[in-house]
Write a structure and sequence with these properties.
- The chain is of the alpha+beta class and 256 residues long.
- The chain is 24% helix and 28% strand.
- The chain has a single domain, classed as Deoxyribonuclease I, Chain A.
- The protein contains six helices and twelve strands.
- The strands form two sheets. Strands 3-4-2-1-12-11 form a six-stranded mixed beta sheet.
- The longest helix has 20 residues.
């Protein structure tokens, strides 16, 4: 089984890149974030023609999550059900056979003193409670997406300058670590303990990919039963080098 994640930064703008990548790599499950399109305008036909079934929830010019899959999902749920704002365009949970796939677009946070940063910290707590309420660590779960968190210094090219960044601040790293500790393994780090591996490259930094000036904020995590079956996990830089690319690129994990 091959699962991939990609913050497309507008699915309609990035559709040729996505379809080209799907055609060449043929993942079983392809999770997208920041689709930035209302549901009635989502390019469903393009995925159907490519052989994929698609579920999605989005907003105009903002947020949005989607899962494309070769086999249809048994269950699909959007957003939280904890009585607060469901945030349906940031979270989709789908079941494929005995495996649950949680695709999330975690709030970026804007600035440390912005209310959205506090919302981001609460978001990780809500995820923890979702796992506590609905699952056991022995369940087969893959948690993927743009989590807007660089967990370690090796996940940023210039970590020493980013202590107050909303994707690296100590409090958000602690919030992510607490949620991850519920029962998840970082599949990418299982195979790549080295530094210099990034999935996001800021548009504002010239030749950022070539200069290796990036961040690893996109992740694939799995509970132990699935982590034991992982065979590989890797970042594909080619989509980030395409004309009119997203500022993120694709991460893929393979399981036996």
């Amino acid at each position: 089984m091959k699962i991939a994640t990609f913050n497309v930064n507008s699915i309609r703008s990035r559709l040729p890149i996505v379809l080209n990548w799907l055609g060449k790599n043929k993942p079983d499950i392809f999770c997208m974030q920041e689709t930035k399109v209302q549901d009635h305008e989502f390019p469903v036909a393009a995925f159907t023609e490519a052989g994929y079934q698609i579920v999605f929830r989005g907003e105009k010019s903002y947020n949005g999550v989607a899962i494309a899959s070769l086999a249809g999902s048994l269950e699909v749920k959007f957003g939280f059900d904890d009585g607060l704002s469901p945030d349906e365009s940031r979270l989709v949970l789908a079941k494929f056979g005995s495996i649950y796939v949680l695709n999330t677009y975690v709030p970026q946070g804007r600035e440390i003193d912005n209310p959205m940063f506090k919302y981001k910290l609460e978001w990780f707590k809500r995820l923890f409670h979702l796992f506590e309420k609905k699952f056991k660590p022995s369940d087969k779960i893959v948690w993927v997406g743009d989590l807007n968190i660089a967990p370690e210094a090796i996940d940023i090219y210039n970590a020493e300058m980013q202590e107050n960044h909303v994707c690296y601040h100590k409090s958000v790293r602690e919030a992510f670590a607490a949620t991850k500790a519920w029962g998840f393994v970082d599949i990418f780090r299982k195979y790549h303990p080295e530094s210099g591996q990034y999935s996001f490259f800021d548009y504002r930094v010239p030749d950022s990919v070539q200069r290796k000036m990036g961040w690893r904020v996109d992740h694939i995590l799995a509970t132990t039963p699935l982590a034991k079956k992982a065979k590989d996990c890797y970042i594909d830089l080619k989509p980030r080098l395409e004309p009119k690319a997203s500022d993120h690129t694709v991460m893929t994990a393979e399981f036996s």
